[in-house]
Write a structure and sequence with these properties.
Blueprint: E1 4-9, E2 15-23, E3 31-36, E4 42-50, E5 53-63, E6 68-78, E7 86-91, E8 95-100, E9 103-109, E10 118-122, E11 151-158, E12 161-163, E13 172-182, E14 187-197, E15 203-214, E16 221-232, E17 237-239, E18 245-251, E19 263-266, H1 272-276, E20 283-290, E21 293-301, E22 311-314, E23 319-323, H2 327-331, E24 340-342, E25 347-358, H3 361-364, H4 366-374, E26 378-381
Antiparallel strand pairs: 1-6, 1-26, 2-5, 3-4, 3-6, 4-5, 7-8, 8-9, 9-10, 10-11, 11-12, 11-18, 13-14, 14-15, 15-16, 16-25, 17-24, 18-23, 19-20, 20-21, 21-25, 22-23
């Protein structure tokens, strides 16, 4: 097969460490080289099967505003993803480890003893964890809200079931299976299937959660995507209006808490809990000191997500959660309700990009990275 030529147009944004993809006529599962015609640099590329189509993925190192650049994909130049890239590996401990360039980035914990699956650690580029450990596991960290487990998904009113905390009678999210566990030179993918259950074991929702972790070749930030689908399993499912919930929730490391030296910032420039809690925004960032440096974690919501832009349940004590159903609670208005009933067999869709970065939101230019997510460069096959 001859080399493939691709033309990339940056558009109105400066691009840095930005993942891109384009449908191609190449076999899925291959890792091949892609060469920047101007610089002559060859970078890793990866062919991924997506809904019956093969898409070629790679990471744009840098493009100036409105710059147009040509790249060449040569299927004969293979790339060894054991030397760099993303490795996804199940372990005997009911944990899937995800490593970037042979360094642990995060792990997905799914054991049957858990109230619900979660990711821990979530490491910055210097391998410092930006999320809190389970209560009691790391000396010096706070011990409130034991159910806040690093990075997770849960909600407090699901047909009256509390699948947010871990008090007596709480609901559970029970892991069932994986149908995708893929390593690669550009990204690794993990797709898990779980059920949301009442305390009595009645299945309310079927959950499909996919993680896409990128080796974005950036010393200042790591990024990964989370795509979440919830299907009403055996009848209509009502999500009540409450602040207690988050379809992408983060509890930051205790040293990052905004009640101390940390900072909360949202996409509208709001700073701190007062300006960000209960407000709608396309992204929110939490930053603060970790191991002697300032690091942060941003959650960006894709506009295709249900009821985007979401409300944020974000607190000075370290919590940051997306919540599209809490409108009445957040606005303290009994005449408003954010409750929603999902009909049996129908689905809700949520999509997020998480950026783990050095510095605060300004230093990391989270606003620019957000447009790399929702308005990526245009890629065209020209040969």
């Amino acid at each position: 097969m001859p080399a493939l030529r691709l033309l990339v147009t940056a558009g109105p944004h400066v691009r840095h460490a930005c993942p891109v993809s384009v449908p191609v006529d190449l076999p899925a599962g291959t890792n091949v080289g892609i060469t920047d015609i101007i610089s002559g640099r060859t970078m890793p590329g990866q062919c991924v099967s997506e809904n019956g189509t093969t898409c070629f993925h790679w990471v744009i190192e840098h493009l100036a505003q409105n710059e147009i650049r040509e790249y060449v994909v040569n299927p004969k130049v293979t790339w060894d993803n054991t030397l760099q890239g993303v490795m996804v590996k199940d372990t005997p401990d009911n944990r899937v480890d995800i490593a970037i360039v042979n360094r642990l980035f995060t792990a997905y914990h799914y054991g049957s003893e858990l109230a619900r699956p979660y990711c821990y650690p979530v490491n910055d580029p210097y391998r410092s964890c930006v999320t809190r450990a389970n209560v009691g596991e790391k000396p010096g960290e706070t011990t409130d809200h034991e159910h806040h487990r690093s990075l997770w998904t849960s909600y407090g009113e699901v047909n009256g079931t509390n699948n947010w905390d871990e008090l007596e009678g709480h609901g559970r999210t029970v892991h069932r299976s994986f149908d995708l566990m893929e390593s690669g030179s550009v990204l690794g993918r993990l797709r898990a299937h779980s059920d949301w259950e009442t305390a009595e074991g009645e299945v309310l929702l079927h959950e499909t959660r996919e993680f896409r972790v990128y080796d974005n070749r950036d010393d200042l930030a790591q990024i990964f995507d989370v795509i979440l689908e919830l299907e009403a399993a055996s009848g209509d499912v009502n999500f009540g209006d409450t602040k207690e919930g988050g379809f992408l929730s983060v509890r930051v490391a205790s040293t990052m808490d905004a009640s101390g030296d940390g900072q909360i910032e949202n996409g509208y420039g709001g700073i701190g809990e007062f300006e960000c809690w209960g407000k709608r925004s396309c992204w929110c960032d939490y930053s603060g000191p970790v191991d002697g440096r300032c690091s942060g974690i941003a959650v960006m919501e894709h506009p295709d997500t249900f009821r985007s832009p979401t409300y944020w349940h974000v607190r000075d004590y370290g919590l940051m959660s997306t919540n599209p159903f809490g409108a009445g609670t957040f606005q303290n208005d009994p005449n408003i309700s954010g409750a929603y009933t999902l009909p049996q067999g129908e689905r809700l869709h949520f999509a997020y990009r998480i950026m783990v970065h050095l510095g605060d939101a300004w230093d990391a230019n989270v606003a620019k990275a957000y447009h790399g997510y929702i308005n990526p460069p245009k890629v065209e096959v020209i040969d």
